[in-house]
Design brief:
By secondary structure, the protein is α+β, with helices and mostly antiparallel strands. The protein contains six helices and 16 strands. The protein has helices spanning 3-57, 88-99, 160-184, 228-238, 247-255, 265-276, and strands at residues 65-72, 75-80, 84-87, 108-113, 120-126, 141-145, 148-153, 189-191, 196-197, 203-205, 208-211, 216-219, 222-225, 245-246, 283-288, 292-300. It has a five-stranded antiparallel beta sheet with strand order 1-2-7-4-5, with helices on one face. A hairpin with a 4-residue loop joins strand 11 (208-211) and strand 12. Helix 1 runs antiparallel to helix 2. It is rod-shaped. The two termini are 14 Å apart.
């Protein structure tokens, strides 16, 4: 399996995902704007129709419903050219029938205001759960006046300004997340599981070719000579890469013919070997405290 290609494909796929998210966010920005404009126009027509139905029920088919006035976010006011009288129950039914066609107008409050002082003549609250409805003063007829009908809807979601803030902050945030995550995807390293033999005489240790018979390390045009004991130590370690080789084993196999083992001698040879293996930074001679040594060879797959 080509690990490098696999990793690159994953990084490219992640980058494509971030790009699609950014494009989606930009498209959503335009979509929000378009939808908001359309919903606003649709809502104004719906409210004007409520005014029209109220006047028709009052017996007025000629006077005008004045332009709908937006008081606040999700709050609108109906104004009329002439005075009219209304029955509270009938007004509730007219508005309910009109708003029943609007899927987002489940919760709302209606107040009928006196135009002279904006005092509330009649008001009620409707909720999606009918048990919560509040309709006081039902059955009463109100005299003629140029009433104002104020309708306030419960917010169905985030407002236009909040959407804009979300989009404005979301796009840089997505870009930042993409940058952080892409940088956090560090190149994987493959650890050599077993010795790699170029041929029967040569062992490949990372980028270095080890020739045990000639006691040489070959890196490109550079050849490094090894002493007899350095050669023995490296051969034992190279035959068991990424495995702990016990200190006692190394001492026994290297110095058994001499009869005398000097404790610090092994550490000296390991230190010299580290310097001679510095041509490849992926090769590490690790001291496992109280146990032994390990030759660790890694391959950078990035």
């Amino acid at each position: 399996m080509n690990y490098k290609a696999f990793l690159n494909n994953r990084v490219q796929a992640f980058g494509a995902l971030i790009f699609l998210l950014l494009i989606s966010a930009v498209c959503a920005a335009f979509s929000f704007t378009d939808n908001d404009d359309f919903d606003k126009a649709r809502q104004e027509i719906m409210l004007r129709n409520i005014g029209h139905q109220v006047l028709l029920h009052a017996g007025d088919s000629t006077s005008r419903v004045l332009p709908v006035k937006k008081i606040a976010e999700n709050e609108y006011q109906l104004q009329f050219e002439n005075a009219f009288a209304f029955q509270s129950d009938s007004l509730v039914q007219i508005i309910s029938r009109s708003l029943a066609k609007n899927s987002v107008a489940h919760n709302y409050i209606v107040n009928v205001l006196n135009p002279s002082d904006n005092g509330v003549i009649f008001g009620y609250a409707i909720f999606s759960n009918k048990k919560d409805n509040i309709v006081p003063c039902s059955g009463r007829k109100q005299p003629k006046s140029r009433y104002l009908i104020d309708i306030k809807f419960q917010k169905a979601g985030i407002s236009t300004s909040q959407k804009s803030m979300l989009i404005a902050g979301g796009i840089p945030l997505l870009a930042f997340i993409g940058l952080v995550v892409s940088r956090s995807v560090k190149p994987r390293k493959k650890i050599l599981p077993e010795p790699e033999y170029i041929d029967k005489k040569h062992i490949c240790i990372g980028k270095i070719t080890f020739d045990p018979q000639k006691r040489q390390l070959i890196t490109g045009d550079v050849t490094t000579e090894l002493t007899v004991k350095e050669n023995k130590v490296l051969l034992i370690l190279a035959q068991s890469p990424n495995e702990i080789v016990e200190r006692s084993r190394l001492q026994k196999e290297i110095w058994e013919d001499e009869g005398v083992i000097v404790g610090r001698s092994l550490d000296v040879f390991i230190s010299k070997l580290r310097k001679k293996l510095e041509y490849d930074p992926m090769i590490k001679l690790i001291n496992i405290h109280g146990k032994g040594y390990k030759l660790q060879v890694e391959y950078d797959l990035a």
